[in-house]
Write a structure and sequence with these properties.
Elements (H helix, E strand, L loop, with lengths): L2 H29 L29 H4 L2 H29 L1 H26 L4 H29 L1 H21 L6 H17 L1 H45 L6 H39 L5 H11 L5 H18 L1 H26 L8 H48 L6 H6 L13
Helix pairs in contact: 4-5, 4-8, 4-9, 4-13, 5-8, 6-11, 9-10, 9-12, 9-13, 10-11, 11-12
Pfam family, one: AI-2E_transport
Membrane topology: Multi-pass membrane protein
Keywords: Cell membrane, Membrane, Transmembrane, Transmembrane helix, Transport
């Protein structure tokens, strides 16, 4: 009987060790440490033979596409979204084209008159009175110029018609005597075809005249909108700009606040420089036309001044108009002399006046000018061609400033250099000249 307690103790110790082993195995299975052993293969599934080829796992579909194609796809859908946004924006602008052009014209006029308001304010005039005096004076001057042009054209219309008739007869005689072998019958046939074309298209010409009345009403509405917008921009331009800044997200507001004044200085420099260059062109070409005894010299000078606001195209159109008037009124020789005057003045403008007057404030590549004028003309006609170049110049200034601002912010946010990097980036003192005796 004395051996029974010892045997029971051994049995209890064995059961305890067995329980600990079961607990350890259960813990290993729960933690995954015991999953390294391969699971037994069911006897119903035979293993593959040794000569069977290995089958590679299928790759991820995204990894199967070449890297260049993935980059192109990522850029493609972003470009599609951007193109859709621009298309919707252009549709909105086309729907309110009159308002947009009137406001842009008001911006250009404000850029021209703003320095006068600031000067009158510094002289002691109240802001409202200075704005009223500047705006009224500017509008009166523009109105008088328009009235003078119309008056000159109407006053010389009879003389112009007689000179045109004589010029056509002289041109006819010149063509008959020219080496182009033009006969009088061919000239008469051309004149008869023109007359028949005008007679058959009377309805289209009448509808065009009615459409011209609609255009005149829209033009008058645009002029009134531009006048009111100019008044408010001259008086409350700073408040309007501060209100626009509130619409910009707070993170981008400092950059936009710095780009705005620089864009305004670029626009002001462009408008002032263009006005000065246009006045010089109009004065010198007008004097040349006047001394060559071409009629309507003053109205042609005003047209040259107005068309000078359209880069490249305006100079060609106004110069061609002056040459045509000289041709039909004074003959071929006078027309050639007018062409020489126009080309000489335009060469001086392109190579001397614009680089000297505009300087570096407005620097746009000629290709960008051509593309901007063409795009503006296709989108919004003459008004779009006028505002295209200043828009490109302002955009160039804004993009350049925002790029420099973002780079500066990135440098400020970067950690300061330390260790060997700090030594490499630290400014090195300039080399000193060796002393005497060294």
């Amino acid at each position: 009987m004395t051996k029974v307690p010892g045997w029971l103790g051994k049995l209890g110790a064995g059961l305890t060790r067995m329980g600990k082993r079961l607990d350890e195995r259960r813990a290993e299975e729960e933690s995954g440490e015991g999953g390294d052993e391969a699971a037994p293969v069911p006897e119903s599934v035979p293993p593959p033979p040794a000569y069977a080829p290995a089958v590679a796992a299928r790759p991820d579909p995204a990894a199967a596409i070449p890297w260049g194609m993935r980059v192109a796809a990522e850029a493609g859908w972003r470009l599609l979204i951007l193109a859709g946004t621009l298309w919707v924006l252009m549709k909105i602008i086309s729907a309110v084209q009159l308002v947009v052009l009137a406001f842009v014209a008001a911006l250009l006029i404000t850029a021209l008159l703003q320095p006068t308001v600031g000067r009158l304010t510094r002289w002691g005039l109240p802001r409202g009175l200075a704005t009223a005096v500047t705006a009224i004076t500017g509008f009166v001057v523009m109105g008088l110029v328009g009235w003078f042009v119309v008056w000159q054209v109407m006053d010389n219309l009879g003389d112009i018609s007689d000179r045109v008739r004589d010029g056509i007869e002289e041109l006819k005689r010149w063509l008959l005597a020219s080496p182009f072998h033009v006969t009088e019958q061919q000239i008469n046939d051309i004149a008869k075809n023109l007359s028949d074309t005008i007679g058959t298209n009377t309805q289209e010409i009448t509808s065009a005249g009615l459409q011209g009345v609609t255009v005149m009403m829209e033009l008058l509405t645009g002029i009134l909108l531009a006048m009111f917008s100019t008044l408010f921009l001259l008086y409350d331009g700073k408040k309007v700009w501060l209100w626009v800044l509130k619409l910009v997200p707070s993170l981008a507001r400092p950059g936009v606040a710095g780009a705005g004044p620089r864009a305004w200085r670029t626009l002001t420099a462009y408008v002032r420089g263009t006005v000065v260059v246009a006045m010089i062109d109009a004065i010198f070409i007008g004097l040349g036309i006047y001394f060559l005894d071409v009629p309507l010299a003053v109205p042609l000078g005003v047209f040259i001044f107005l068309f000078s606001f359209i880069p490249l195209v305006g100079a060609v159109v106004s110069g061609a108009l002056a040459v045509i008037v000289a041709l039909v009124t004074q003959g071929v020789f006078t027309a050639l002399m007018v062409l020489a005057v126009v080309l000489a003045v335009q060469q001086i403008e392109g190579h001397v006046l614009q680089p000297f007057i505009l300087g570096r404030a407005v620097r746009v590549h000629p290709l960008a000018v051509v593309l901007a004028v063409a795009t503006g003309g296709l989108v919004a006609g003459i008004g779009g061609a006028v505002v295209a170049v200043p828009l490109v110049a302002v955009t160039n200034t804004v993009v350049g400033y925002l790029r420099a601002y973002s780079e500066e912010q990135a440098l400020r946010a970067a950690p300061p250099p330390h260790g060997a990097t700090a030594v490499e980036t630290a400014p090195t003192p300039p080399p000193q000249a060796p002393r005497e005796g060294e």
